[in-house]
Design goal:
The chain has 132 residues and is of the alpha+beta class. The chain contains five helices and six strands, in the order αββαββααββα. The strands form two sheets. It has a four-stranded antiparallel beta sheet with strand order 1-2-4-3, with helices on one face. Strands 5-6 form a two-stranded antiparallel ribbon. Helix 1 runs parallel beside helix 4. It is globular and about 45 Å long. The two termini are 28 Å apart.
Length: 132
Amino acid sequence: MNEQIAYLHGALHDGYVYTGKSKGEIAAITQKNKEWLERLSQIIKQLGSNSWIFQQRDIHVLETKLPEILKPLDVSTLDKNSALAYVAGFFDAEGGVPHDVKKPLYIQFVQKNRDKLDEIVKILESVNIKCG
């Protein structure tokens, strides 16, 4: 799988796929940070598709009809580089690090779906990154 598509699948954890009455199937990614969505838009353009960004209350929404991210992804089938690209997209959507430089450094993924977190752990541990 293309690493850019794997990254977008990870990023889609800040979004959802829906079917609009007039637009058909759409992937939507929501984020307060419009700049990140603009970078995603550039990736989508490189892949030969279009996207659009609009503001909805206090967040920005990127929507696209890029066919490759409308289909569900079986993370277990990804090669090493694509799996790591997926984790990078997931982190950019759902991750963080502490802001206080006096506190110990850690990387955090926030996700209600435990199975998704288990996927991330499996990928990270496959490249010798210990998770807790």
